[in-house]
Amino acid sequence: xKRILLLPLILTSILxxxxxxxxxxxxxxxxxATATPVxxxxxFNPGDPHNVQETRSEGYDGAGVTVGIIDTxxxxxxxxxxxxxxxxxxxxxASFVGVNNIHGSLVAEVIGGKTIGMAPDVKMYxxxxxxxxxxxxxxxxxxxVRMYEDLYNSGxxxxxxxxxxxxxxxTDAKKTDxxxxxxxxxxxxxxxxxxxxxxxxxxxxxxxxxxxxxxxPYLYPELQKGxxxxxxxxxxxxxxxxxxNKCGVAQNWCIAAVGDYTxxxxxxxxxxxxxASPAVxxxxxxxxxxYPWMNGDLIRQSILSTATDVGAAGVxxxxxxxxxxxxxxxxxxxxxxxxxxxxxxxxxxFDNYTSTFSNNISGDAGLTKxxxxxxxxxxxxxxxxxxxVNGGILKVNGQVLSQVDIQSNGTLLVDGGIIQxxxxxxGGTMINEGNGTTIHGIYMASSEAxxxxxxxxxxxxxxxxxxxxxxxYIKTPGAGHNIYKxxxxxxxxxxxxxxxxxxxxxxFGSVVVPVLLNSEITQDSNNIDLKITRKxxxxxxxxxxxxxxxxxxxxxxxEKVFQVLDNSEANELFRxxxxxxxxxxxxxxxxxxxxxxxxxxxSAQALTFQQMQAVNKDLSNRLSMAGYNxxxxxxxxxxxxxxxxxxxxxxxxxxxHFYGGQLGVDKNITDNIILGAAAAFTExxxxxxxxxxxxxxxxVGISLYGKYTFAGDNMYMLGRVGAAYITSDVxxxxxxxxxxxxxxxxxxxxxxxxxxxxxxxxxxxxxxGLTPFAGLMYESVRRGSFSEDDSLFGxxxxxxxxxxxxxxxxxxxxxxxxxxxxxxxxQSYLTWQGAFNDEDLSFDAAYTGMPDQKFxxxxxxxxxxTTWFGIGALTEITAVWSWYANYDMQIEKSRxxxxxxxxxxxxxFH
Length: 910
Fold this sequence. Notes:
Layout: E1 5-6, E2 10-13, H1 53-57, E3 66-71, E4 90-92, H2 103-112, E5 123-128, E6 130-131, E7 140-141, H3 145-153, E8 158-161, H4 183-192, E9 197-201, E10 227-233, E11 254-258, E12 260-262, E13 268-271, H5 273-290, H6 296-305, H7 326-329, H8 338-341, E14 345-349, E15 354-357, E16 366-370, E17 374-377, E18 380-381, E19 387-389, E20 392-396, E21 399-400, E22 404-406, E23 410-414, E24 417-419, E25 423-425, E26 429-432, E27 437-439, E28 443-445, E29 450-454, E30 459-461, E31 465-466, E32 471-475, E33 493-500, E34 504-505, E35 510-512, E36 517-523, E37 527-534, H9 537-544, H10 549-566, H11 572-582, H12 586-596, H13 600-625, E38 633-646, E39 654-668, E40 673-688, E41 693-709, E42 715-736, E43 739-760, E44 762-763, E45 768-783, E46 786-787, E47 795-797, E48 800-819, E49 822-835, E50 843-847, E51 855-857, E52 865-876, E53 881-892, E54 895-909
Helix pairs in contact: 2-5, 5-6, 9-10, 10-12
């Protein structure tokens, strides 16, 4: 059915050149009877008639919300619709042309113009539905279902309609005139019943009844869920405007708003219900911004229930629910009313958000709360319908008059609130927070129910308490008005869980406290009391984590500190951190123990030793091949890199990487003696798991080396001494409860090493040699002092020296051949290295928050036994140039711990 509707407006130019952009004609002002206005019952504020400034001052301006406008055409480039970046907030679908009439732009200005707009940062999508009337004027609208569908598909859920048929009141209409088979009417019915809100001008015929479109729920009551009709009041008096249709039979979905404005889009003034409805649309955008999860139904209830009552008391046939009050609407509903809820309950369902209804809510309906979100009731609420918490959290900071039923997936949280009725916990969760709970009826918990109580919060029940062996969860004093409080091992903390004036039936079947605490409950006929003390964290850790080495060490260190805290009130900041640890779950405490261990400062020394051994092995490879080319003097250089791991059961494992190079010069002093010197640079990194952190070290070293070959060229001895300066950086996180702190520290280290080897080469064939050898190695690292000052649980330690002496035995095999690239020597070796001393790399430290309490920090130690396997090649390309490459594998604890690759070249001087 094609329908052309008239624009209900009157426009008067503010200039002297006559009317502009509309007005006049059928449906413009109307000539219906004008009823004597009923004066508003409270003072009217012409400066802020819709009370929008309060919510505007709180930062609500429609940002992030998009509304749709079906109207004539839109001036999308007008400055009134520009955002702070100069982009237009008003757009229209180019596929609809409309007619040249400024009505649509004026409507948009009331919604979101930057000067007079209710929501000056809202986005607006326009559908140009303007049409030429039968009398040739451009005052008509021809809405099409595709316009609505395009807006809906663009995210619009709030639709403004400032048009209608003034000549036809809804009470004179029939369903056959507006059948649901009409695509537009069907769209209204479908979307109003689900998620959308349609806001309508009530008409300008001055009648006692609304026009058909705004009054359509009179024919189809199911439309009420997403429908608002808007009549107009005078901007100076607040009384019903003479031209405006009254609410009449639409009073249950009708509201009043100012209808006359001075516009900035064009130099005109205008009046009409056309401009009253966009004021409500702008207010709806503010409500949507405050409550992004609200559907059209709840936005409608918020707007209508918060209207300022004017005219006859209550909902009346002139003003409906009253005059628009935007700031109050932005605080949520003020009524849970069956007339607005269209049933017994106001249904609130949303996920993820936390929202507050701060109005004092009255009415005869109840509330159902569903979804995972949190709804806070902070007002003095006197509605009489029951509260049913099906999901998420219903939080009461204020007062609730009626009964609360908590279902299995629901939570009632009371923090200083009062329930003037019963609370029946049918397997859900009742939380008593820091400011306490008062229940004037009974509190009943089924056997599957949970009562969660914050120590120190009063839980007072004026009726009976029926517990049915339900569960009690205890929260120790935490965030809120109670500062985190450390609980010692003897006195602990004691407090009342609840009191019941009319007695307690049954008891709690189980009491759950954080895993690091003990609980002791006592009960008499009217009261339940509880004492909490702390556990020995070392004993707990050993039992809970199967004597894991890291956690044993951390928990023993932590227990030493806790014992000091047990007997002292000093260091309040550290006590707060310790109290936070006491709130931990088993998983969270495991993470905390891993993170505060500081084991990286022990284990990272293993990285330094690994780095030194890789350089030493590379230089040993050079010495092993030295002398094959009987050169006088030569310079050599190489690049080396490697990848490996640090591992010891019970500690954090690390993946390691290093790269670097060496530059050296050596000389054949005699046919039997080679002496040389080398400088090396390497950088190594280790990335540990289990929250241990990351370590990086840069090693700059020098070495002196030599080789002596005995007469006959079979027996030899070689040696190396070296020193290095090492800069080490550590980055890690300390996790306390659910909070993480990033720490970093650096220290300067010094290393010294020496190596000696004696071997004898047997020639198996003319070109194949086999060389058994033995050696001694000494390595020493002095780790510098460090302090992690970014956390109370950071570590502070003095410098410490680590030493390891080792013996080595092994065998080398080599062969030489000539080919087109030159003379090549291939060599491989297998070495076993055994340590003479056990160096575990542990050290003494203290937490920076308690620097006088020393303890031992453990980590990965040096291996007692190491196996090295390597292969290499040396090729003499010319008389002066040779190149070589080596691969070395380090095996410890049945694992490949390091892979070292090197490639280099030597130039000989003649």
